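TEACHING EXERCISE
Course module: macromolecular assemblies
Task: Read the component lines below, then compare them to the predicted structure of the full complex.
Student: A.B.
Group: 4
Components provided:
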Amino acid sequence: MTIFWKQHVAHYFPEWVVGLLLVSSIVLLIAALLGAKKRFFPRLCETTYNDLTNYLFTRIGVLYSIFMGFMIVVAWQMFDLASTHVSQEANAIASLFQLSKGMDPSIDQKVTENLKAYVYSIIHEEWPDLSQGKRNDHTQDLQSTLWNLYDNYNLKEEREKVFLEKALHALDELSYYRRLRIMDAHQGLDTFFWTIILVGGALTLLTTLFFYSPRFWMQVTVTSLFFGLLGLVIFALLVFQYPYSGRIKVEPTALNTMYTTLWGAS
Amino acid sequence: MLKKLLYAVLSIKFYFFQKLPSCYRTGWGVFTGKRMAWDQRILLVVSNEVLFFFVLLGAFSLSLLSVYVTRSCSFSWKDYDILENHMNPKTTLYAILLGFVIVTSWQAFRNTEHNTIKEANTIASLYRASQAFPPEVQLKIAKALVAYVNTITDAEWKTLRVGERSSQTDAAQGALWDFYGHYTPTSPREEAFLEFSLRILEESARLRALRLLASHQHLSPFIWTLLLLGGAVIIGSIWFYGLSTPCHPLFRALLLSLFTALVGLMLLLVFALEYPFSGGMMVSNDAFYLLTKSLFHSSGVSS
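Instructor-supplied answer key:
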């Protein structure tokens, strides 16, 4: 599986370092560009461009800011949805646990033991692997064992048929949410999305270069304030797009709670 | 002369048609008579990178042209006031509309992605449930599932690009239905597993139908008209601004092209998201490949 550089950044560096680096590099870039403009394009340093630039910047600013606002919503939805998927997975596991009680004690005991090991493996083995977009082979094996238990079980009573059907359904749900969790772990925003976000930001930044202020540092400060905020928005996108990487991530809280409720502290 | 021109146009079209793989050709509406949206055709032959480059180039050319066209227009500050007061709320409205369309398209794209994962999961569940049947039945189911998954990844993913289903996948799915339809369970356990498998197969067929639907569903032409017309009005309004101030034409064109390019790139994003199985930005079939690799391969039925 491909691990993107963005995921590497989110995995190895604390969020505040990435945020600080991003914002400070944007400020430095603005200062460098405005300095370069003053030195190499002195004709651009004329007040005559301010009216036209102001008119255009208002439009570009509105367009890009609203776009970025929506992007944050998209990334937040991805994060929120990942969290919902974990809750649904925990719910499917709990259902499987309860359904096994309706069956013969011999299979109930096996399912309960295996389910306990499976949940423990998700929390302690698979969760760290998810931060790098990987699944855990041991967890996979434990899931297969669960399927095998039901595949090889011979019904003792007619009544058990209903429970078996329901249990198979819960197993299917459980597998689906796990598959979704693994996919969520390594599918961030598409590269094309990032291209539009970054090129759009660059176009907005270029527009501000046409502004002229006789006080250089004043212009750098004002421009930096706007783009610093934009940097923070981009940083938020980086944080939210991989819901299982970095320090701000979806935690196995729902699974932990379920484990504690069913089997005591993990 | 007209005949020669028509012949030349048709020859060029035929040349590009021949360059396309056969699965694309079947969807090439002009030649097969089947309807395919014009924008989906563009996504088939032009990559996102090329479109991206064309948007930037087009924005600059359009801005240069606008500077040339409006060179003799004379505007007073009063005109600018009117223009500014009118265009500010319109730009905001347009930006919100564009934002909503992008988010809606992205959500539809993600939904299709999730449905694909769910579909792959149904096949995994079918395979796992098959382990409850006798060994010879297990082998038959496994072979039928492998054939089905292979046609999805190899054939149907290509036909989806033109919004069509694959007849090979239809046949493989039909074989699965046939098998389960004719199987007589020999024990209550098998009965339970057969019932479960049938329900999962039904779910798999439903998800496939949704996938096929998503491959040719597109934004309403009305929304596209609104987006394009709105964009034209917003871009057109900036052409007339700043004409009274002395400004180098190239600088003016550059400044105008920045805004035009931003609008163009956002429209390009909507365009790229419109068809989840066509173009450079498409739903991947990783979930099915992963299935072949992990589940079928480990049990020795992958080929």
